[in-house]
Amino acid sequence: MQTVTVDPIERSAIRKVSIRLVPFVALMFFINFLDRTAISFAGPNGMTKDLALSAAQFGLAAGVFFIGYIVLEIPSNLALHKFGARRWLARIMVSWGIVALLFTWVSSIPGLYTLRFLLGVTEAGFFPGAILFLSMWVPSRYRSHILALFYLAQPLTIVIGAPVAALLIEAHGLFGLAGWRVMFFGVAVPAIVVGVVAWFYLADRPSQARWLTAAEKTWLTAELEAEERARANASTQHSMHARAAFRSGRVWMFALMYFGLIYGLYALAFFLPTIIGGFEGQFGTHFNVFQKGLITAIPYLPAALALYLWSRNATKHGVRAWHIGVPALIGAASIPVALYMQSPAATVAVITVTACAIFSALPNFWALPARFLSGAAAAAGIALINTIGNLAGFMAPYVTGAVKDATGSYHAPMFVVGVLMLMSAGLAFAFCSRARLPKPGDGIAPVTLEPQSHSS
């Protein structure tokens, strides 16, 4: 077996980036996801009753966030390039923190819709901006590991955030506010504070980092510039008109695959606290607010572990289509089954399987478009895929709530989730049978999506 020797400068540079930047950007993502999903904790703990929300209205309030997000995502990304990732990410955090703070005093359904839309507008560009920022600091061979660590913040948001949100809700009467209003206040303030800190803490590129030595700056800058030149050459060699991405079956296959995964993620994120809140009527059990918060957190701790181990396997052996297809298939089968369990423990156990499946598939999904698209295909195709995913973020809570109102239970909407995740699994396996996925180091170039010379 050949031993790979890593230069001490390279090792120390990557270690410093991993310690100095990744935890802080993950903290930003933690706060981002908590503020985005805080409505799921507020709903069953007083907000739905105080604002007289139906399940469909709650779902629309949760989902309208993504409309604002989609509208401003591309302009926000352009602004990030113009003003720099550090300034723009800090600005995004402070802006969404201010809007999130206003939820403390929301008093009507139209006001709730407006604030959720504005929250999407102010958060627009954060996630791709954070991914881009981290990509500007490490060479591609380290990126999958770095991004897996970053993605861990998403399930850990619920592991830590659900009990914290419950404690804030239990502070009912603080400042004369209802518990759910105290919770909105408590989760909004950190976004403003960390956004201000980010302005001074982050640096846009290695050459500006005071915490790197001159040798580490030189090595990182040279590696990243070499990769940028290689990408520029590839874009020249494989250039295509961006509109071809919209005519490509492969891009739409990726988009629909992502749609099913994101639909499952947000149906679970926005309605799990409500489903757990229904245990009392379903099983005759009683849990206080903090206990409900702990129960909500249970599925996400194993999910974080599954995400890490599954991504580690994918990084070691190369991402294959089954790294997405197998978890999606497990999620498709488990999420409807959860509602037929005969006890809270059994229900939560099955939901835990679903959470593990969703979070195992998502981080590995993006390796496929990046590996098979290049040049203009990457820009246009990935933008289309991400937009379709955000549409799933809008549809999942709204359709779930509307179907629940129409049928009187969550059984039918969870079957919808199962069918869409089954679609994702099927597409992943179909893709595997149609395309050869390059293995790490086998030298296969990305595939471009050339415009078709014939009508299909």
From TrEMBL:
<feature type="transmembrane region" description="Helical">
    <location>
        <begin position="410"/>
        <end position="432"/>
    </location>
</feature>
<dbReference type="GO" id="GO:0016020">
    <property type="term" value="C:membrane"/>
</dbReference>
<feature type="transmembrane region" description="Helical">
    <location>
        <begin position="146"/>
        <end position="169"/>
    </location>
</feature>
<comment type="function">
    <text>Component of the tartrate utilization system and may allow entry of tartrate and tartrate dehydrogenase.</text>
</comment>
<feature type="transmembrane region" description="Helical">
    <location>
        <begin position="251"/>
        <end position="277"/>
    </location>
</feature>
<dbReference type="InterPro" id="IPR036259">
    <property type="entry name" value="MFS_trans_sf"/>
</dbReference>
<dbReference type="Pfam" id="PF07690">
    <property type="entry name" value="MFS_1"/>
</dbReference>
<feature type="transmembrane region" description="Helical">
    <location>
        <begin position="51"/>
        <end position="72"/>
    </location>
</feature>
<feature type="transmembrane region" description="Helical">
    <location>
        <begin position="88"/>
        <end position="107"/>
    </location>
</feature>
<feature type="transmembrane region" description="Helical">
    <location>
        <begin position="289"/>
        <end position="310"/>
    </location>
</feature>
<feature type="domain" description="Major facilitator superfamily (MFS) profile">
    <location>
        <begin position="21"/>
        <end position="436"/>
    </location>
</feature>
<feature type="transmembrane region" description="Helical">
    <location>
        <begin position="375"/>
        <end position="398"/>
    </location>
</feature>
<feature type="transmembrane region" description="Helical">
    <location>
        <begin position="181"/>
        <end position="202"/>
    </location>
</feature>
<feature type="transmembrane region" description="Helical">
    <location>
        <begin position="347"/>
        <end position="368"/>
    </location>
</feature>
<dbReference type="InterPro" id="IPR011701">
    <property type="entry name" value="MFS"/>
</dbReference>
<dbReference type="GO" id="GO:0022857">
    <property type="term" value="F:transmembrane transporter activity"/>
</dbReference>
<keyword id="KW-0812">Transmembrane</keyword>
<protein>
    <recommendedName>
        <fullName>Putative tartrate transporter</fullName>
    </recommendedName>
</protein>
<dbReference type="InterPro" id="IPR020846">
    <property type="entry name" value="MFS_dom"/>
</dbReference>
<keyword id="KW-1133">Transmembrane helix</keyword>
<keyword id="KW-0472">Membrane</keyword>
<keyword id="KW-0813">Transport</keyword>
<feature type="transmembrane region" description="Helical">
    <location>
        <begin position="322"/>
        <end position="341"/>
    </location>
</feature>
<feature type="transmembrane region" description="Helical">
    <location>
        <begin position="21"/>
        <end position="39"/>
    </location>
</feature>
<feature type="transmembrane region" description="Helical">
    <location>
        <begin position="113"/>
        <end position="134"/>
    </location>
</feature>
